[in-house]
Amino acid sequence: MLLSCRKVKKSFGGLIVLNGVDLDICQGDRIGLVGRNGAGKTTLANIITGYLDHDEGSIITTRQQLNIGYLRQTEARTELFLDVLNTDCQVDSEFHRLASHLGMNRVMDWSMERLQNLSGGEKTKMALASIWASNPDLLIMDEPTNHMDYQGVEYLVSELARYQGTAIIISHDRHFLDRTVSNIADIEKGTVRIYPGNYSSYRELKRQECESKLHAYQSQQKEQKEIDYAIARLKNWSDKAHRESRQKGAGIKGGKEYYRKKAKKRDQSVKSQIKRLEKMRQDGVERPEEERQVDFILNSMKKRGRRLLEAKGIAKSYGNNRLFEDSTFYINRGEKIGILGPNGCGKSTILKMILGQENLDAGEIFLSQSARMTYVSQELPQGEKVDFISLVKDWNLDDQKHIFQLLAALGIDYDRLGIAMGELSRGERMKISMGLAIMGEYDLLIFDEPTNHLDLLSRESMEQSLMHFPGSILLISHDRYLLEQVCDHMLIFDKQRIIRFEGNVSDYLDRKYAAEYQTSFKISDMEEEKLLLETRITRVLSQLSLYKPGEPDYAALEDEYRVLIRCRNELGYNSNI
């Protein structure tokens, strides 16, 4: 046992966040910590790491000194990794190795100006590298994939597979959790429950558990109705017995006593059934709380022309930093377009150009004059002292009613809207931003990392709603599940160009990895390459047999197997030409 939480409680004012948490963390564990926004995930992480005191309970560790590395959700301090650059050579070397693998090359040569103007993804990568370089016994990461490009996520997955220590991962990235954790710790109503397996296994177990509880509750309700009916029937019989004791017993020796005893037995039966019913209602199965379905109510204006947006030969640079050049693409009405590329390549910049907030260096962007757009940025406002109810108090009553209904559908209770917006959680503020943006009817929704800070259930519901949205969507996201399900076309940032790709993110990555694989081997003899492929496929299959679905290594091997099969199929096709 590395660390244990026993009966840990924490309240803020009158709000109980953690209510007797028990959690055992063993050496080598890979635990995914999940729960709704505000459930207490970050609070528990802050208590374990000592950033926050708990009200009751205890934190027990088996080691005199426990080196904990903690990536906080708001970690963005340049000093964090500048301190590493001034430490011993071994730590400094490890920091540069990790930063380089995450795409941050030759950090030691970067100017202070460059370091102080990092993107969100670059800050996360730098913080991860500096924390990991200290070789922690326990690594706690709060939303490590927020803002991080897919290359960084892939490397993070591989580093976690190599890491010998213990990891607790707070994340709303389903694809990442499926590939990295072997247990899920679910925080609900202030307590923690452990589920074996990755996130997909956990969701299936939760579904089965909910169905089982609902079945037990329905069976109990049916039995209670039958008892209610039996009580009513026994009461009628008891009343009848009492009447008979007065009527039939009159004038008959011993008659009254006989009928009184008969009536008393009926009374006892009624009391017995009532006690049974009361005990069942007190100790029986409660109706399982249904997961609130967050319904993102999206509307679209009527379609007019086919072409919504077109870019021709566009280019953009900042000084010597060239983002992209000679790029041409288009978006038709009704298409859902995902944007994919490494951190710092210009994904957010292209959105600002479409919105007219940034100028082009060359080329032109045509946007249909009839198009109506709405935009949700990844940047959240900070420190607002006004509450949302005060913010909309001058709106007309119909619009106020509409926005309150919308925010309730987004999963925000009305009493939360009376709290200063700066004191709400990041997830709540993101939902409010989305609610304000989608009030009207739009042809084009532009989202820049809309799922950051949203809990898993909100992400899943948003995914379903976007899939059914009839208009066009332009979406930047590092949530691969969201891109996979929603977007059927991609804009790819590659080698300083923006390229339209017909297909979803998996289609693109499979083709990319297959091309890289074929390039890396460069074998002229096709038959020899096929033989090598078959050997690798056999090796991967044998390794897969050693793991179970849901284990971190299983997902990585499964991805490798799929790429190898695609390569083999392409080689077979080419050989027949």
Describe the structure.
By secondary structure, the protein is α/β, with parallel strands linked by helices. It contains 18 helices and 18 strands. The strands form four sheets. Strands 5-6-7-3-8-9 form a six-stranded mixed sheet, sandwiched between helices. Helix 2 packs across helix 5. It is globular. Mean pLDDT is 79; it is low at 76-82, 84-90 and 573-577.
CATH topology of the largest domain: Rossmann fold
CATH class of the largest domain: Alpha Beta
Total number of distinct structural domains: 4
Q: In CATH terms, what is the architecture of the largest domain?
A: 3-Layer(aba) Sandwich
CA-atom Rg in angstroms? 31 Å
Helix content: 40-55%
Q: What best-fitting shape do the alpha-carbon axes yield? A: globular
How is the biggest beta sheet arranged?
6 strands, mixed
Q: Spell out the CATH superfamily of the largest domain.
A: P-loop containing nucleotide triphosphate hydrolases
Distance between the termini: 60 Å
Assembly annotation: single chain
Tell me the strand percentage band: 15-25%
Counting H and I runs of at least 4 residues, what is the number of helices? 18
Low-pLDDT residue intervals, each spanning 5 or more residues? 76-82, 84-90, 573-577
Mean pLDDT: 79
The counted number of beta strands is 18
Structural class: alpha/beta
Strand adjacency order, main sheet: 5-6-7-3-8-9
